[in-house]
Amino acid sequence: MSRSINLAVIPGDGIGQEVVAEGLKVLSAVLPQDVKLETKEYDFGAKRYHATGETLTDADLAALKQHDAILLGAIGDPSVPSGVLERGFLLKLRFAFDHHVNLRPSKLLPGVATPLAGQPEIDFVVVREGTEGPYTGNGGTIRTGTEHEVATEVSVNTAYGVERVVRDAFARAQARPRKKLTLVHKNNVLTFAGHLWTNIFNQVAKEFPEVTTDYIHVDAATIYLVTDPARFDVIVTDNLFGDIITDLAAAVSGGIGVAASGNINPGRAFPSMFEPVHGSAPDIAGQGKADPTATVLSVALLLRHLGYDGEAERIDTAVAADLTERASLGTRSTSQIGDALASRVAG
Amino acid sequence: MSRSINLAVIPGDGIGQEVVAEGLKVLSAVLPQDVKLETKEYDFGAKRYHATGETLTDADLAALKQHDAILLGAIGDPSVPSGVLERGFLLKLRFAFDHHVNLRPSKLLPGVATPLAGQPEIDFVVVREGTEGPYTGNGGTIRTGTEHEVATEVSVNTAYGVERVVRDAFARAQARPRKKLTLVHKNNVLTFAGHLWTNIFNQVAKEFPEVTTDYIHVDAATIYLVTDPARFDVIVTDNLFGDIITDLAAAVSGGIGVAASGNINPGRAFPSMFEPVHGSAPDIAGQGKADPTATVLSVALLLRHLGYDGEAERIDTAVAADLTERASLGTRSTSQIGDALASRVAG
Ligand SMILES: CC(C)[C@H](C(=O)O)[C@@H](O)C(=O)O
Ligand SMILES: CC(C)[C@H](C(=O)O)[C@@H](O)C(=O)O
After folding, report:
1. Which CATH superfamily is domain A1-98+290-347 in?
2. Strands, DSSP E only, in chain A?
């Protein structure tokens, strides 16, 4: 294992700056003395877009590629037209670095607030495909802006792309105590892509006889997420369905303030990127109100990806302890939460 | 207004038979003496498919077209491959009869069980587009079944199709006390369709100055549906997003046992179809365990569509009374619930 981490840091917009600062604080605190942490900050986001018109250039990609991993705060601002930074930066990076495993764990800790009655057990991971589906940018418009406009969006699904993410999800399910994997799709309506996903899922299942499998339509999945979230262990799903159900999963398991994600290239051909699921929240930016927990948990995912399992575990434990005590701790600022987590992982 | 109703009845599969019987019971009870109710039953569904290979023929469509409206129980059975009855019957009918307004109200009544803590206020309507989007069946596969398979699904969106459903939703919002309309899409990623929807939404908004509007991404919408459902009054959205969020909406507002829907052709060029949101639930079929409430509420939507507003209102009131007393009524069978509702509306 490498004893140095060369990290690209992208604070981004809104609360991104604040939460990333706390993520780095905790990262520094948890790493052993002999691990050399190098960080380089990049200025992607709304400000750079307004100044230069650039979102992510080839030179940027070449620079980012030199790093072991990327930590991102949040990208997006109301001053930029919808889609420009999402397609021009976030998705461009996921696609350029082949981040085909978009990993989003959900765990409801005791004492943590949830909109669900009865504090159900929630402990599952969504493996969302990250480089295909309706996210490819395929499609277009004709007769644009007229009453005869036709706009299409093409969901592209390949056996290659589906198999690798399904295989990754089976391996993750196999490594968990319950060993259960649920495929979420809409194969009764999106029959072309649905059959591809279902067939590959069933084929790969044969290689993992210990893993219990089932299938649910995405609409029904949203029902189970609020009525019986304990039924889920690992979920594998398409890019768009994954986008939707992971926001819901975050909402029921403590809120997007604590939802972490990894945009992972498992073969490490490119650096993986770790980011909170929440956005840039411009309404509360700069006020020290943002919860850095999701970013700190994203740092844990980053460490685990790089092989620092013990350190990742210490962060998870610190966050769990902090969250369960939170109700009694009163309102804390972004940096106070960061300080508390940093001292827990250091101790 | 016509003083006769010529109704096509499609009990379908599983619990469909049982719940439709109760829907008809309540319909007969609520109609004034001078309204002549004629019903004709059709045998669509799994049994007919197995016997004849047919799902919905041209002759079937011609016969159905003669009716004023259609009442459907549920279609679907595990013995039929996924997609066959959905695409071959349900969606075929929605498309053939141009059911572009898929109406799905959600209302949480006092005392009704919800998975959400704190019994929030929920009273909104989703206007789901019904004839476009990823539901068109456009797409296909190449190199099918090989490791080089590519499967596509094409979401088709037209200015014509979007405008008519958006206009319908604005009119519905205008007619409600809060007069608020929310567009739900994913216009930061699905930019081609997203811009079409957003532009048309903003244009039509100018004609409805009294209606307050906002926009939320579909992923965020799932968060609000569990953390702040009271923020919604009317939602207009795409076919697939509507499918997903209405299942979630049903789950939080009393469960799919009480979720009704109308597949509406507002201009009445074709008969509209009314059906519970739930499926055929083969696991409980034939046991008198199914809740007919969603079907009865679908009958209310049907009556309102045909201009019988007073009768529709009486059904809604009866259901509300039954639901709020339900906790104290113990377990009742499908027909006991139907009887109770029928006697309430008759009284
Ligand atoms: C901002 C947007 C492009 C992104 C997505 O849709 O993937 C976000 O919602 C997420 O889930 O990471
Ligand atoms: C059964 C299926 C085709 C249908 C849909 O996806 O529209 C159902 O989920 C619904 O919501 O009515």
Report:
1. Isopropylmalate Dehydrogenase (3.40.718.10)
2. 4-12, 36-41, 69-74, 101-107, 123-129, 139-142, 150-158, 180-185, 212-217, 234-237, 260-264, 272-276
